[in-house]
């Protein structure tokens, strides 16, 4: 249970990041409304909220679907600050989008100043395995390097769509319980500790 | 009375039910009368209270009216701005293909500047507590939004945003609708999130500022989209501003001459306008003139609008070669029509309770309309206004039992004077006035017939009424308006009918009373004296007929007839001033005296035939000539018909009775 002072269900804030056209909105809409949107219309920044049952507990998920286009890079900081967990999406048919994930990861870590922020690397469009450009091994290697889970999804077939959102929410939830156990002062220390540890690695 | 008020104030009050109830409750007429009086008193009291409260709030009324007109002009300005924007967009899309790009660009800059000025002023005027400098900023968007609680989405407060290219001003909308500055943000540090789904909350956006994230709600989906787009524009402002500069020719934002011209709207500057004409470029004032005129009209500076239109027309007549002449000319014509319409409308609203006030308030509009050459429309409208004023005044006067005739003709004269003052040089209008006067006269006559010359009216009141109409009517000739003939024509048929009717009625009364055919004894000297005086005033000297202290040597009915006849002669003579009525008046008088003359004593009565003859002789030889002279004096014409009876009478005259020994009284 959330220890927030508000009475309502716990709210988990998820942010979709990734290059333009990799399917962030498609994943979001598939999760929200069980529908696959074929038309492509670049997103600026849309937010959605939905009540879901996570392991028998009713929670709210807040999804911020951001713009992948490069010209929004400057404003991303503002969005990222509010996120509690990130789905970093790329298209397995587009190597450039995979390379871009590096940049997104760095920006998130910089903004959140937290190496262990709940984060999933998501390879979307796995229904298009035939025209795959990013080898699975490469993806897994990067995930391992970042110490984050790697999941392949298809917004079209709904494969793993629920999984990525629920997995991320679980991580966010466990982070929150962890944080609330520690006093606020020590939490901050731990953050630093993590960061230090990271630099050690 | 308190109960009464409560009853009337009841929203379910029904007149019918109330009346029924009243009738049921009241016993007999007096009771009802009493109730009626009570209600009447209440009604009077209410109207008095109403009057009082109107006076008490008079200033407020005036202020509210001012406020409304201010708002009206502001609305017009707003719509102007919108219109301008529309024009800019249209010209931009058109201009992209054409070569006039430069022109449009300039225009665009001007419009943009005007808009900026407007918004900057709005911020300064409306926002309390904001001291930032807004010079040189570009205004993008403004509007009210509702801030929602981020947890339960309840409305927290109303806010008002002003978005400029590099600053967002957030204000709180206070309860008195004033704005209180909260904070300002750099749009580059603001992230806007379109909230697509928030548990049923519609049209919400999330704005993330350095101070945190807040949810705002717009009233319409369009408003929300607009905000998102404008925030994006502000966010990308610097990128976009750089792009056009990379464009074809990096022109200085404003060429030298256009800079001078933006201020050039003063009428004294026509010289420089003529100089610039050589470049086939319209002076800027004429471009801005149309908007200016529109603003003048909206702000009710009609004179300024008119003079500016005139100036534009003059200029357009001189030179028709510059760019965009057709559009400007068209626009000016359209504005001229608009101004005329507005003025006519204004004019038609001028009617006040008092005609004089109404006339005074029309003067301004009239002057402008005449200057604009719209005299005919103006005169028509003016006369309509006057009709209303005139008729209301008549109604009022009738209610108050005032002299409606004098009022009518005075009003008519007033209108005519005011009209001639404005339209003297317009013959077409003057004839309109004449037509109008005739129409009003016709209406007046119909009212007169309806309310004063009703069937069964006495000749006396008819004569008074007609005399009262004729006198002021004749006075109108002083200002060159002769309506007498028309008036007589309108009244003639009715008056003739009335006179004939009176004649028949009077003839019936002759000889009704049983006359004992004895000399009239008035019993006291003072009675005699009074009778003699009365008759003397009417123009007949009866002293020769007195005998003794209290006797008149004529019958009582002869004396009564004499008095009545002389009065009637007076009235008839007045009516007979119009030749058309003279005949029927004379016939009335003739028939009456003949009827009296032919009265015969009852056969059963023993009377002195000489005395009977004396009475008849008196009628022919004394009363008739006096009546004839009175008639002639008053009516100013010879009563030929009356004089013919005189001759007949003399032929039939009875032999002159012997003189009696007469006792002379000392009454005189």
UniProtKB/TrEMBL annotation, chain A:
Subcellular localization: Cell membrane
Record-listed E.C. numbers: 3.6.5.2
Pfam families: Ras
PROSITE patterns linked: RAB (PS51419), RAS (PS51421), RHO (PS51420)
A cellular-component GO term for this protein: plasma membrane
GO molecular function: G protein activity; GTP binding
UniProt keyword terms in alphabetical order: Cell membrane, GTP-binding, Hydrolase, Lipoprotein, Membrane, Methylation, Nucleotide-binding, Prenylation
SUPFAM superfamilies cross-referenced by the UniProt entry: P-loop containing nucleoside triphosphate hydrolases (SSF52540)
Chief location of this protein within or outside the cell: membrane
Gene3D superfamilies named in the record: P-loop containing nucleotide triphosphate hydrolases
Name by which UniProt lists this protein: small monomeric GTPase
Source organism of the structure: Musca domestica
Automatic annotation (TrEMBL), chain B:
GO terms under cellular component: exocyst
All residue ranges annotated as the Exocyst component Exo84 C-terminal domain in the record: 285-483
Amino acid composition bias (Polar residues), ranges on this chain: 256-270
Sorted UniProt keywords: Exocytosis, Protein transport, Transport
Protein transport as UniProt keyword: yes
Keyword field contains Ribosomal protein: no
Matches recorded under SUPFAM superfamilies: Cullin repeat-like, PH domain-like
Gene3D superfamilies found in the cross-reference section: Exo84p, C-terminal helical domain (1.20.58.1220), Exo84p, N-terminal helical domain (1.20.58.1210), Pleckstrin-homology domain (PH domain)/Phosphotyrosine-binding domain (PTB) (2.30.29.30)
Swiss-Prot/TrEMBL GO biological process terms: exocytosis; Golgi to plasma membrane transport; protein transport
Residues covered by region (Disordered): 239-270
Matching InterPro entries: Cullin_repeat-like_dom_sf, Exo84, Exo84_C, Exo84_C_1, Exo84_C_2, PH-like_dom_sf
Pfam families named in the record: Exo84_C, VPS51_Exo84_N
PANTHER family in the cross-refs: EXOCYST COMPLEX COMPONENT 8
UniProt similarity note: Belongs to the EXO84 family.
Name of the featured protein: Exocyst complex component 8
Gene expressing this chain: 101899026
